[in-house]
Amino acid sequence: MSSNVDILEVKGNTIIVLIRGFSVAYVNALRRLALSEVPTVSVDFAYIYDNSTGIYDEMIAHRLGLVVFKSDAALEKYAPPEVCAELEPPNPKCFIEIFLDVSVDEGGGGVYVKASDLSTSDREVEPVYPETPIAFVAPGQRIHLVAYARLGRGREHAKWSPASVSILKYTPIIYYDSSKATGECLECISAYTDIVKALSSGGSGKIELYGLLNTSGLRYCAETSCRECLKLVYDSSSLQLIIESTGALRPERIIFEASKILEDKVKTLKSHIASLGVSKGEAHGAY
Prior knowledge:
Helix content is 29%, strand content 32%. It is of the alpha+beta class. It has 2 domains: 1-38 and 162-287, 2-Layer Sandwich (Gyrase A, domain 2); 41-160, RNA Polymerase Alpha Subunit, Chain A, domain 2, CATH 2.170.120. A hairpin with a 2-residue loop joins β1 (4-11) and β2 (14-20).
């Protein structure tokens, strides 16, 4: 089978990619790397100089870690996590400085401090969701802090994972014969409007299902009231990779970076094997 990759949909923070001719192991590796290895920017250090709010310093630091920052430009500008994880700020090659100083006078009204109130030393690394709440500052209170963000990977901490959803699934295929459809079957699959329409057409054929459609109910119907007119199979040679970004990186960028990381890991493995003096023939015979 020839190999090909088709982008079925890019909508908001979600991308659906149809991959044919690649092994499940390869595509699953991309899925896992999207979660654990593709770097993004997140707060790693927080120095709180003044906090008279009702929220503990530790909670404020935790909320800063939950702020999602734009990371596309940062991948090109800052040193990789393997370098920066061993260093402490300030270091302009690794860290972006984040500043916050909000106070409310006595007699005034309290204010909610949000991600939009954070000032960053790099305008290309700003909060993705400005309305993210950080703290409430009541009259007579102040919060003053300096935080430092760096590139990191999801395997270090989930706050650095660029994907909130990373799914690999076989493509479900429905084979139908409308001449054998019954009212009981149509009632059972009523939630699957495209299949109901096909069964009402008077013909036969197949339908490939894409995206996050849940097929557990469809499988139940195909095995019970629709067993004469529907057959559901899952095609392992037609794989769907579904990535939903947190917003830190574009979803297509996540897949691109994951593929580069996988390529680098394979090159490193081959280099280590070669350093042991193992020839291609010997390596093949070991399997």
